[in-house]
């Protein structure tokens, strides 16, 4: 039973199959090909029986009915499950709706029940309906992708030959098994409305969203089926039976929308037929490589194929949509003509096509034109939504039209002649005021209109219209312009087809009747939609006017156009002002036909100027045409507002050019298109047209065009602040006031003939506002420059806002955007109007289908949200400038307005409205992205973030909260590609790009809010219970489906990081790692950062780590993937950051496990961290540094390194930095200062240069070089500017890379430190621990010593090496020392290594000696930073302490010490180590000695302290006293002596207990420790005396400054304790500070006397001199204290 039921599993989403086909088509890797082959073999029966459900079964139906009593077996090994009655009823309903087997319906419903957490507002039945159609959609989409990937003739995908052969063979087999008939049957059976009605009857539909989802799924299934046929026809030669079946289907089942346009599925089947009945190539361009393809086509080789299709298309029959047949007839007639033109030489050996059929081509085309084929194609095919986005649809119609014009020239000429005749008839009837005959055919006019519709829009930039333009036969035309395609570009002149098409354009304009004038101009405008086409069109029209006399001007020329405009202006113009233009005399009129012609001329001018900058400049500068003057003059004439709108549209395109825009501003001001000066500044020009004419007509073309003109001027970069200069007080304020007060604030209350025009008016205004705000830079002077006269609203009047500006306005110097900002930061009508996004969200929540209205409404909402976002970004600076200026303007910050009360709803629900846009991320990703960014900005501070959470949780219902949460979850769950700065799409509104940005911004929002006080946005979106503290939330109980819980963003993030994929490394090895690391590295980085933030936060750490450990085993699994790799080398920064965040999270997890003593989990995780493939022996390179006696490994024993070292090898220590700037015009120092002024730090501490700000600074500098003599300098300056900007970008990228590498090192170090210190020591044996540490240290040292390592990266590695040395030292300090040969040291020193330790062995220390050798070589490298040297000195010091003989803990007498020294044997292990270490150090000769001595004498204080300590340790093992001799010989001892006087003042200042202990004290102590060690030998003591150290100490003033204290302070301390304390306590009191300085000097004196003896009079004299020099603070004070006790 179970096996039968599993075989019926036809509804399940074939996501694996669909994902595999997409992977194969997009990536085409060897692995994807093999995976697809396996899936195709497994799913072939599903393709052969496409979308066929297993029928219902009466026996199984009874079993299901008895499921509530007997039970039903769900899984094979489980007992029968008792089902609820409601469940059984739902399953049977699903079975009846879909005609589905009952057991399959049960399984479908169970699956739906399991998936309900992913659909929080749906029941299991509604989810089951979605799953059913989603499964069918995936199966059909997989089939479509397979057919699209075939090897064929129309297109080629980037697929390997093996893969193409596989899918071609598979789909050929499907085709032979009747796939075409199956698809056509399904298209006939599956009807969207019928399926929706069937579901509605059985209550299988939910809310509006569910209805739309189901409708879209069914429509997509139909569309995929139809496109599969299209791909079959486009890529292969379909048999006659299949083509005939498609024709019969279109005959009976063609479907149209409510407006008469063909449905997308019918359109796809139609174009499948059009491709099937067309020849594969252009006969005029047949070449050797496609002759075989042509001759193998069944139209050429199979006579029955030709006759069969011909009979189907010419027979008399009743078609459901006659235009479909006429379209196919037109294509068929062209095919017949092309077949007739095939050269006979090519057909040798084959049966030529039937001549009888070929001769009927004109009859067939006549049949098609009888049915108005051109009109049908224009209205019902080209007019379909999205048609111009389908390249191969466009190319097919383009091919049919061009082949018709080229190959059926006589027929086209006949259409033209007939068109002329029809035009004369129509003119005759019009002149007699009679209705024209209804039977008149307008074939030529409709052909021109079809060409206009076909080429008028080119979103894919195919520029198919360029085939219509080439050099004319007229030699004068060849010189018309350099942009006309010259003949020499072609080997034998222009192609015949191109020449014929251009001839068609020229001849169509000759002797054109008036009624064809407008269609012809519109066709020219459509064909000029492209840079090259527009240029040639301009030259053609310019040539037509320049080669005729003034009395015989060609009507198709610019001369004629502008002459006519001047005549109209002269006829219509009068001296009355513009605002009285409606009251014109009766004799000054213009007919509707003339208006239509002028509008066509303006449309043509707009297109030419838009696409050709040279034509734009020529038209503007032509004095004879006087284009701007006459166009502005026509605006003052009584002409319809639609014509005025078109005229302003021409001016708008002229304003694109910055040089023209400045002059056009003054012309516009002079023409008073908007009355800005005089007495009547409120009721004239465009303002009057708006209020009296456009409002009455309920259409606003002139107003929209005028606002677009202002926007174009703003986009051009013209200085709008100077408009009106010399005529009135200059400034943009009158224009902005008109747009805001008269247009924008009133647009919601006006009446519109078309509802979408309401939102188009709003969009025009918002584009201007957005441009002004985007380019605005606030400055305090703006608040003092002008009196603000805007009346914002009733609640805050203009006088209240401007009371600080004084009574008299002064000359405005503020930018145009400044008054607009005052509107924005004000709770008034402007903000209420701007909040039109509420209309958008209401429409989107209704899930209505009104494409035209939706497009304009969504555009307006998008612009509003862009304005809000840009205003929020500028807000802080604007408010700061206002405060700095001392202005008393009363403004409200925008974040407070958005978080404030919505007066319409009475709730603070603006944020809720914004969040609801995220729900519609699939259909409108741009709105979702802007909403997420606005919410993120509102969450930038803790206070406003709390208000955001409160608004979401208190201002809406629980259902709305769940929808918002699920919207964010769906954003993260959506699959979207990732684009970086280098490969961003040209169209930044691309849906996939926007979806990728949405996912990243959601994660950035979560990361930012994690550390904010609870409750915060992150805890809400991540599924925490907001009613209790986060650390008390049980995330295990919030798993999807448990206790009604839904998915949260945390589940989505973990899913993103858990999906696996394979990638090939540089060595060619395939490794498994998270798929997001490969495909979406930035998203993966943010996901790992979020997990780390949650683990590091004190409130969320415990529940999140517990959840990761118990539910996902996240840390353990993620560690398996390390190290990460990405095939794209440009993603190295992201890969490093991913591993950095993961390693930091691992460190926190290890620390948490150790803290809670979870030994098993800690040991399990540690095993992965230190996973070894074998013994971590030293590499051959390192072993070569050892001699035979100390070698502990050979090359044969070399194995792979540990997991941590493999991860470390991902890091490349080499780093390239940008080269210094080399500039021609700019001063480098000034440029560097400008770059620094544009730099700021982000939240990670990375210093970024704001390239946009830098560009503005440089552009302002270049703008000063505008004179003609500065042309060359300006060119050089522009080149410099490009170099500077590129250098700034390179600097930003370099800083990002260095930061990523440093972060990776930090994470790696954290994990290593925690693994070595916090975790239980017994998890790793002592020997293994030493081995791992030494191997790791050796690997780090060898890596850091590489010649190309960057110093910025070697410093952290040196710190890690120091940490490892400390751990190695700790492994030798396990047990207390009990060796009898220990001896007593009388004096302590800092870092003296007195810890008890076990006796070490040569075998354990030998590998460490190898590492130390490398460390010393690293230390000797030139140019090493002092920070690195500091770490290396400390590491060397720790090593020397490891090798140092343990000291006795008890104080013994000197004689006892001497006896101990005598008892020590030469064969003692420590003596051997001392000799080996001394030999190792001496191998580096004077270079190492000189380095240490120089660091002792100068450099950073910490480095000096450690250098002194190292020198001290070396002195103790330097029995030949080589180092002492070197120091004396080279003057270093003398330098040390002089340093006492140099540091006297700083040591004197250190006695102040209120200050921190200065660094000079530590240097002094370590220096005295070294001198004490030197003084232990006769030669060293004499060297100290000879260098004059005691003399220098005698002269120091710091020893004179003994602080005053109570007499009883030392009364209980004997003199011996004062001189030889056991420990030196570093305290903060003045006495303690003084002891730190005095006692080392006394110890030095004691050492000298003990070493040289009483017989050495010089030493005694010097010591006595020292004591006498400081007799009061040293001797008398001590004796005074001592005498009290005596």
TrEMBL record:
Record's keyword annotation contains Cell cycle: no
GO cellular component terms listed in the entry, alphabetical order: nuclear pore inner ring
Cellular compartment(s): Nucleus
Family annotation (Pfam families): Nup192
Any one Gene Ontology molecular-function term assigned to this protein's record: structural constituent of nuclear pore
A biological process term (GO) from this entry: nuclear pore organization
Keywords tagged on the record: Nucleus, Transport
Family statement drawn from the similarity comment of this UniProt entry: Belongs to the NUP186/NUP192/NUP205 family.
Protein name as it appears in the record: Nuclear pore complex protein Nup205
Species per Swiss-Prot/TrEMBL record: Ciona savignyi (Pacific transparent sea squirt)
